[in-house]
Amino acid sequence: MTPLARTLEALLFLSPEPVSIKDLADATGAWDDEVTETLGELRHHLQGHGVALREVGGGFTLAADPATEAAARRLLGRARTPALTPAQAETLSIVAYLQPVSRPEVARIRGVAADSATSALVERGLIEEAGRSQFGAVLYRTTSLFLKLFGLRSLDELPDPERWDPSPEEQTALRDRLLRAGEERAA
Amino acid sequence: MAHLHRLELDLDVFAGPFDLLLALILREELDLLEVELAEIVVAYLDHLEARDELDLEAATEFLVLIAALLELKSRLMLPGEELEELDELAPAEAAEELLQRMLQYARFRGAAEWLTGRRSEEEGWLYRSAPPPPELRRVQATEQAYEPDVLGEALGGLLRTPPPLDLRHIRAPRVSLADRVAVLRGLLRRSASFSFDEAVEGADRVTVAVTLFALLELYKRGEAGWEQGEPFGEITVSAA
Question: Which domains does chain A have, with CATH numbers?
Answer without folding.
Answer: 3-71 (1.10.10.10), 86-164 (1.10.10.10)
